[in-house]
Amino acid sequence: MRKNSRSMKSKFTVIENHFLNTFFSGIYVSANDFISIGKKVGINLSMNSRELLIKELLNKSDENNSLSHTVELLNSIIQDRIDKYNELSRDYPASAGMLAKLSQKASNTKSLLVKQSQGNPYE
Q1: In this predicted model, what pLDDT tens digit does every residue of 29-38 receive, in sequence order?
Q2: What is the 3-state secondary structure (H, E, C) of the chain?
Q3: pTM above threshold 0.85
């Protein structure tokens, strides 16, 4: 099964790769976060690499028509992190510049997630 999961073609490759690289996403979403979201949308995910978890979560959500709820839950996590960055910026003004960059990247991740979940209208 593992081999099959790795070879599974995903239409969410861009956002999967984005989530896996904190340099681009501005946040770290843990394997536990992905598993928790899966439970909330009725997808039982077993502990695995973050790469396989995000791929399975997005693709299975798409298959069972819960993708919009999954995106909503992921965006909630992202917004929580943005709020934390803003709070830290107020508490530690010297780090405000770096935290603003992370906050901007996280905001871009939210937008990319919504855009990718809607798919390509020209396909």
Answers
A1: 999 999 999 9
A2: CHHHHHHCCCCCHHHHHHHHCHHHHCCCCCHHHHHHHHHHCCCCCCCCCHHHHHHHHHHHHHHCCCHHHHHHHHHHHHHHHHHHHHHHHHHCHHHHHHHHHHHHHHHHHHHHHHHHHHCCCCC
A3: no
